[in-house]
From TrEMBL:
Histidine kinase domain sequence ranges: 20-221
Protein known as: histidine kinase
Length: 229
């Protein structure tokens, strides 16, 4: 009976996810269809802006499909004992380039004598990049994104802090829901994916934010062999 219930749970979860993704992909598709139809009828000047919209919407549909696939698959990931600092250093050029394009600054502060963590580095990179991109997108061109690693007693912490728009307290609980987004080109899947990655790495994630001041995402990973929660 227990197996049967689990199976039903999984089936209804798959059904719910299929319904959401169908809905999310239909929006850009409807926009694309409308503008392609208009392209037929309009002047070359109008056509150029319509092409832009069509391409943006195709990119959005593509981003939704990619994020959704990462969320749905790879439930069993291979892990290796690795140093979080090394991974941060590997990501630095990428982060720096991204921030530079926006006129922003990266301030990386790595903790000392870090214990190794069992991690899947592909997933862990995806986690850091998603949190960093959200931080950058929340800031203007005077923003500084701080990325910190800290060696605590039982955990290793990763903190991603921006001095951007911040998040209203009543919105905090919505952040990790799939498809919750306040961005015109957002997928709303970034933080849902982050949460599932953190859970697969024996971690916890929480948010501290002050509207108008900025936001910190704090991820704590339990060190191997410790009892954290
Ligand atoms: P997306 O970035 O595609 O909108 P996410 O799941 O990554 O989806 O984020 C969901 C929402 O959470 C964002 O649309 C935004 O409103 C809010 N959010 C996430 N990170 C931050 C941040 N650092 N500062 C302000 N708001 C944020
Ligand atoms: Mg995002």
């Amino acid at each position: 009976l227990k197996d049967e219930v689990n199976r039903m749970d999984r089936l209804s979860l798959v059904g719910q996810m299929a319904a959401s993704i169908t809905h999310e992909i239909r929006n850009p598709m409807a926009v694309i269809r409308g503008f392609v139809q208009l392209l037929n009828e309009r002047s070359p000047d109008d056509q150029q802006s319509y092409f832009r919209i069509v391409i943006d919407e195709l990119d959005r549909a593509n981003a939704i499909i990619n994020d959704f696939l990462s969320l749905a698959q790879n439930r069993i990931v291979e892990k290796e004992a690795s140093n979080l600092n090394e991974l941060m250093n590997e990501l630095l050029p990428l982060l720096w380039a991204d921030a530079n394009l926006r006129g922003q600054i990266i301030d990386m502060r790595l903790g000392e004598e870090m214990d190794l963590l069992h991690m899947n580095s592909k997933e862990m990179k995806q986690l850091v990049l998603n949190l960093a991109r959200n931080g950058m997108e929340a800031m203007n061109d005077k923003g500084t994104l701080r990325l910190e690693t800290l060696n605590m007693a039982n955990t290793i912490q990763l903190r991603v802090t921006d001095n951007g728009v911040g998040i209203a307290p009543e919105k905090l609980e919505k952040l990790f829901e799939p498809f919750y987004t306040t961005k015109t080109n957002g997928t709303g899947l970034g933080l849902a994916l982050c949460l599932s990655i953190v859970e697969r790495h024996n971690g916890k994630i929480h948010v501290e934010s002050e509207p108008g001041r900025g936001t910190s995402f704090i991820v704590s990973f339990c060190k191997p062999g410790r009892n954290c929660w």
